[in-house]
Design brief:
single chain; 314 residues; alpha/beta; 7-stranded mixed β-sheet; 11 helices; 15 strands
């Protein structure tokens, strides 16, 4: 019975991916966009490691620089699989401090440096990102100091410039992109952010974790692509049945995240061209197919809808 379910889920997923082929391509060796690129590195919601989806991470690639948004478990490996050069890391943006979004923040800095990073990196996020960064460098001091002495590497800490964000507005701007943020609603996190990237050729918005938020709709107004977290409500009871804290987890999911139908409504209200459903919850239920996500969203948004997969480029 289990094998039949797995086979049906695989075939349904394969069919959905084939149908979506004009909208995205695998990253390695290819580019779906000749200009500003958006690659979905990790598309699963929640901190539990899974075989099929990594935790939340995205990268915007522009002018040979990497702008990473969120650093879930395995982000450095996903960047390598995507064909990105870790020494090109230039900016890191954290939406909030849940482990499926920041667990590998320090590791991304360390492993990029170990791969040859020698340029300035700016890191942005809500407090206490400055303290988190300093504590990570303290925890990793033995490795860092040894590699500086034995391998002739430049010191890592002076390369990293941390910016704590406590309000909406302009985050940074360079010759490739302008980045702004909005404060979104993600109980019980005091400060959670969504980010918008405006480049000459396209505009991209990443929701982070949020329940349906008017501030996110305003941030995404007229954007080309909105990457929005999505919760598939009919599968929540099956998901929480796996854990002893089922009642508490269910209450958190319903209060703090966005049902796929509401993500579609937000995309319609914002007038975006493409809605990408990501940070999927559940992320590994074999009974929930890509087509089911699409069917839930389609009645509420007439634009292009994509169900995210790890290493998709949009």
């Amino acid at each position: 019975m289990r094998a039949d379910l797995d086979r049906r889920a695989f075939l349904a997923t394969l069919g959905a991916l084939t149908a979506a082929a004009p909208a995205w391509r695998g990253v390695v060796g290819q580019s779906a966009s000749p200009g500003t690129r958006l690659i979905l590195l990790g598309t699963g919601g929640g901190p539990r490691p899974r075989a099929g989806r990594m935790a939340s991470a995205q990268v915007v690639v522009a002018n040979n620089r990497l702008y990473v948004v969120d650093c879930g478990d395995g982000v450095a490996r996903q960047l390598v699989l995507a064909g990105a050069a870790l020494p090109q890391l230039a900016h890191v943006f954290l939406t909030h401090h849940h482990s499926d979004h920041n667990a590998d923040y320090g590791n991304l800095l360390l492993l990029s440096w170990a791969s040859g990073l020698a340029q300035r990196v700016d890191a942005y996020g809500p407090p206490p990102i400055d303290r988190i960064t300093k504590l990570f460098f303290e925890m990793s001091a033995t490795d860092i100091e040894t590699r500086i002495a034995d391998e002739g590497r430049v010191p890592l800490a002076p390369l990293v410039h941390v910016h704590e964000l406590t309000r909406a507005g302009l985050v940074m701007q360079d010759d490739a992109v302008k980045v702004t943020c909005a404060v979104v609603d993600h109980p019980m996190i005091k400060m959670a952010l969504a980010y918008r990237f405006d480049a000459a050729d396209r505009s991209l918005v990443i929701s982070g974790d949020t329940r349906r938020s008017a501030s996110l709709v305003e941030l995404a107004r007229g954007a080309d692509v909105l990457v929005h977290e999505a919760l598939y409500l009919p599968a929540v009871d099956r998901l929480v049945a796996r854990v002893p804290n089922a009642a508490t987890l269910k209450a958190h999911l319903l209060a703090s995240h966005t049902a796929v139908e509401d993500a579609a409504r937000a995309a319609a209200e914002a007038g975006v061209k493409t809605l990408m459903l990501s940070h999927l919850v559940p992320a590994d239920d074999p009974l929930v197919t890509d087509e089911m996500w699409l069917e839930a969203a389609r009645p509420h948004f007439s634009g292009h809808i994509i169900v995210a997969r790890d290493l998709m480029e949009v």
